[in-house]
Specification:
Chain A contains three helices and twelve strands, in the order E-H-E-E-E-E-E-E-E-E-E-H-H-E-E. Chain A has 240 residues and is an alpha/beta fold. In chain A, strands 1-2-3-4-5-6-7-8-9-11-10 form an eleven-stranded mixed β-sheet, sandwiched between helices. Chain A starts with a strand and ends with a strand.
């Protein structure tokens, strides 16, 4: 079923999407916020540009956007998949606790802040292009992957202050990261074949979505960032 | 002794004539103050570990124990007090930030104690709550601006979602993790029985407590711990925590030692990992951004749950509240600077924020002046200690109050203010199974119900004395209040006259 979003308010649009039985497409989307918030049971294909907080609290639904998306994609997402065939704005995957986000292009500032994980629930964000500053700040779990594909600017793969306050999870950057300054509480190493094995499945999925060459990606140099301590603030306090 | 030595704060006094060496004190003290000396057949104590939680005193079968404040004193003066000097030593010893628990202990003004309540005499006679009905129910949520009718003259009753409370009090946010499973169960069950709400705090909701959802406020804080669709739907209302009175402007760290078992699962972070709540919500930098979070929560819950925005009482609180009232929030919760905490940096707890009384009065006035008071309900916390504090808060303009410290006291807390150690001997602020089981939820919830039932009677009596038979008629009724010993500026902010006027 197709829902035409032209001149439809976000509240009405979401109600329509909620009421659809089975999968649907949403066309002529123009900035409607909170699309598919908390939804669990369908695949939604979007043309046009969805507004902020696309798929917030997403609970198992699949959203595929054929172009760009704005800020706060997958905010506090719990399960499901968001596929963006373009770029995304700031604060994608904030406090994400499950599911996967695939972005073909670039991500803005503060992607993957405070991502979590618990046992089988391991969220993952794959960014095909580059990421802005504060990537993975306070990261507590899950996997953030930045591939730096289609580079025509020569800029670094990630902006300033990546992984500040990181205390869990892993970050993979397809770069030697020699110009990037990391904070003291993380360890920054060249990823081994074993490390890459862990993300192989996600890379394969990314390549299926966006038609890229898996081997070309996996055969390049990756830097892996992991926290040194699960308790980065432990020593700062004295009982009073 | 070395330069690092700090003389213990308390002394354990054991009456040898009464002590029967039953070793209860030894078993009860998680701080390991008491120890049995086998050779001599007596109990000895290491008072340097004592936090004065009174557990041993309360359980000693022969009343052989008491804890007293040590009179070993430094040469203090009005500027350099004992505590001030010791804090310097602690920091010179460790290099650490001072960390404290519970509310601001400093002798800053408690305005509740400088406000007096009116009573009727001769005209407008008082009402006896024992023989006449008194309405203590309140409804929290956005109210319509005016009464509207359809073409047949019938009232249009469509209201945004409301919370009904049997009395204007709720248990405020304390996370599972900062307090124990049994403490949460006690609060949840008491709230259900009382027809009020308790608040999960930011640590998520244990699956065993989903059944109390109708009496639960689920909180969304910057760390977003345990936040997912089912959680949001489980609660009666959703609270966005922007700030906390005990530590405005900073986030929270629940140490990894408390992230064990179910706490870890409920928060969705691995065992032993610190739970870090960043100071800001990283997606909120403006009222517009706040509006976005408010409406994303409303969308996710299909507009069935009121959204509360909780902020700390700080200098420009009236302007902040005005912004929140326009953000789409249904309820504003304001937490004053005496509010409690499981752990906060001492300097922040003791020096940041403003008293809730002044914050409440200025917010209520500002929202009235701007004609948006009905957009939101106001809930205030930050050391509401008694029924009279509640009545004064309502008369200053609050719709309801949040209490937490008083609730913990009912559960057995003795305000030793060392929650941050995780070794609470009363089974409240701990995750150690042997300690948690000391708090029986049957007893805990009963004690909470008794406390609140008593407060409800007192609220009715105070209202009746004023000749008021409904909370609605008390709200914002500042004529019922008078100040004592307050200067004109304070009286002006509180919007009350001085006693005798």
């Amino acid at each position: 079923m197709n829902i035409n979003a032209k001149n439809v308010d976000y509240k009405d649009l979401n109600e329509e999407i909620r009421n659809v039985q089975g999968d649907c497409t949403v066309s002529e989307c123009l900035g409607q916020r909170f699309m598919a918030a908390g939804m669990s049971d369908k695949t939604i294909t979007v043309t046009g540009i969805p507004g902020n907080a696309l798929g917030a609290y997403l609970n198992g639904a699949v959203i595929e956007v054929m172009g760009n998306a704005q800020d706060a994609v997958g905010d506090t997402m719990n399960d499901g998949e968001i596929i963006i065939h373009g770029n995304i704005g700031d604060a994608a995957g904030y406090a994400m606790r499950g599911g996967k986000i695939f972005v073909k292009g670039n991500a803005g500032y503060r992607a993957g802040i405070h991502m979590k994980a618990y046992k089988e629930k391991k969220p993952c964000i794959v960014i095909g292009g580059k990421a802005g500053s504060f990537l993975g700040e306070y990261q507590a779990g899950g996997t953030i992957i930045v591939l730096g594909l289609c580079d025509d600017t020569g800029s670094d793969i990630v902006g300033n202050y990546p992984s500040t306050g990181m205390h869990g999870g892993k970050m993979y950057l397809r770069s030697d990261c020699k110009n990037i300054e990391f904070p003291g509480q993380v360890s920054v190493k060249k990823a081994t074949a074993e490390d890459l094995k862990e993300i192989e499945e996600d890379i394969i999925k990314f390549c299926e979505h966006f038609e890229c060459d898996v081997n070309e990606i996996l055969n390049s140099e990756f830097t892996i960032v992991t926290p040194d301590s699960k308790n980065p603030y432990k020593q700062m306090y004295v009982a009073n | 002794m070395s330069v690092e030595f700090i003389y213990p704060e308390f002394e354990v006094v054991r009456n040898k004539d009464r002590c029967i060496a039953c070793r209860v004190c030894e078993r009860q003290c998680a701080n390991e103050v008491h120890k049995y000396d086998k050779d001599r057949g007596v109990l000895i104590s290491d008072e340097s570990k004592c936090v004065d939680c009174q557990r041993c005193v309360s359980l000693c079968p022969t009343r052989a124990l008491k804890i007293i404040k040590s009179d070993c004193t430094l040469k203090e003066n009005a500027n350099w007090k004992n505590d001030t000097i010791k804090e310097i030593y602690k920091q010179a010893n460790s290099g650490g930030v001072l960390l404290s628990s519970m509310g601001n202990p400093n002798p800053l003004p408690v305005y509740w104690d400088k406000i007096l309540i009116n009573a009727s005499q001769v005209t407008n006679p008082p009402i006896d709550p024992l023989r006449e009905p008194m309405e203590t129910r309140v409804f929290l949520g956005k109210k319509n601006e005016k009464v509207t009718r359809d073409e047949n003259g019938n009232l249009k009753c469509k209201l945004p979602p409301q919370i009904e409370l049997s009395m204007p009090v709720m248990f405020s946010a304390m996370s599972y993790g900062s307090i124990s499973y049994n403490a949460h169960e006690s609060l949840a069950r008491a709230a259900t029985e009382l027809g009020i709400l308790y608040n999960t705090g930011e640590g998520g909701l244990h699956e065993d407590f989903y059944c109390y959802g109708e009496n639960t406020i689920v909180q969304v804080a910057s760390g977003r711990f345990g936040v997912h669709k089912d959680y949001l739907e489980a609660g009666r209302a959703v609270e966005i925590k922007m700030g906390q009175g005990a530590k405005p402007g900073i986030g929270g760290h629940l140490p990894g030692t408390k992230i064990v078992g179910d706490v870890s699962r409920t928060r969705m972070i691995p065992e032993g990992s610190d739970a870090i709540s960043p100071a800001p919500h990283h997606d909120i930098y403006s009222i517009e951004d706040l509006r976005q979070l408010v409406f994303s929560l409303k969308e996710a819950t299909e507009y069935k749950k009121p959204v509360i925005v909780k902020v700390a009482a700080v200098h420009n609180i009236a302007a902040i509240a005005s912004g929140i009232a326009r953000s789409g929030a249904d309820i504003i919760a304001i937490d004053g600077f005496r509010g409690g905490t499981g752990a906060a940096p001492t300097r922040i707890r003791d020096n940041v924020g403003i008293p809730i009384e002044l914050a409440l009065a200025s917010v209520d006035q500002r929202l009235r002046d701007e004609g948006i008071r009905n957009n939101v309900s106001l809930v205030v916390g930050g050391s509401i200690r008694s029924a009279s504090d509640v009545v004064k808060a309502i008369a200053l303009g609050a719709d309801a109050c949040y209490v937490a410290t008083a609730a913990l006291l009912a559960l057995g807390c003795h305000l030793c203010r060392t929650c941050q150690t995780g070794k609470c001997n009363w089974g409240i602020a701990t995750q150690r199974p042997d300690l948690v089981k000391r708090l029986n939820p049957n007893v805990g919830s009963e004690r909470l119900v008794r406390l609140m039932t008593a407060w409800k009677h007192e609220i009715k009596e105070l209202m009746g004395g004023m000749g008021i038979n409904s909370i609605e008629a008390l709200r914002g009724n500042r004529l019922m209040l008078r100040g004592v010993g307050l200067n004109t500026r304070e009286l002006a902010i509180l919007g009350i006259s001085h006693a005798g006027e």
